[in-house]
Design brief:
about 70 residues; mainly alpha; about 0% strand
Length: about 70
């Protein structure tokens, strides 16, 4: 899950590029975006607590691909 799996990746890309397209990076990026969105919504007055945002940050890297 840490590197993108495709026959062309090993031929035409660097290991850094394969990591950028991996499932782990993609899910992590979405989670960082969700945290930023929640923080922005809190600033705009939506009912989001700091504790909820901290919980999102705490589990940002705890990805379970088995589900």
């Amino acid at each position: 899950m840490d590197t993108y799996q495709n026959p062309l990746i090993s031929r035409y890309s660097t290991s850094e590029m394969a990591e950028l397209f991996s499932d782990t990076y993609k899910v992590g990026l979405w989670r960082r975006l969700w945290v930023a969105l929640a923080e922005s919504q809190k600033e705009l007055g939506l009912a989001i607590t700091s504790e909820q945002i901290e919980e999102m940050k705490r589990f940002e890297k705890d990805i379970n691909f088995d589900i």
